[in-house]
Structures are given as structure tokens and as C-alpha cells.
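Incident log, support desk, overnight shift.

02:14 A customer reports that sequence design results differ from what the structure should imply. Their input is reproduced verbatim below. On-call engineer (initials T.W.) acknowledged and began investigating.
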């Protein structure tokens, strides 16, 4: 490493450590941490959750699932 008057490439060592930690926190942390980024639910996932919670009946679920599966095949 290039050492010049107490700094590495123009930045103190502490700044390099801060930048590395920030990079890891933004780009390498997993997506499933609460309060962090998470993938969007697909329409089928939302439909399954609504059926599981009792918002829709079995017939509504089957009809809507058929429509969603037909659209995804196109």
C-alpha cells in the first residue's frame, strides 16, 4: 500500500474502513432483514395469502388462480 504522511491514497485509514463497511451494508446484506429491502410478492402469492386469511372463498380462489396461470402462459 502506498503510505504518505499518515494517509492512504489521500484518505485516512478510518475513511477506507467506513467506505468498506458502507459498501458491505448496502450491497451485500441479505434481503430478508426486517426493515430492509424485500422482493415484491407475485400476484399468485397475494392471491394465496388472501385465500389463507379467509378474504375469498375456494371458488373465487380457483377461478382467479386459473386466470393468473393462463395469463402467465402467454
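02:41 Re-run completed on a clean worker. Output:
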Amino acid at each position: 500500500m502506498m503510505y504518505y504522511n499518515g494517509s492512504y491514497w489521500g484518505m485516512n485509514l478510518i475513511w477506507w474502513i467506513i467506505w468498506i463497511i458502507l459498501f458491505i451494508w448496502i450491497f451485500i446484506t441479505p434481503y430478508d432483514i426486517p426493515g430492509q429491502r424485500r422482493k415484491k410478492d407475485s400476484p399468485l402469492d397475494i392471491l394465496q395469502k388472501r385465500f389463507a386469511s379467509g378474504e375469498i372463498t375456494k371458488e373465487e380462489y380457483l377461478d382467479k388462480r386459473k386466470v393468473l396461470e393462463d395469463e402467465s402462459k402467454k
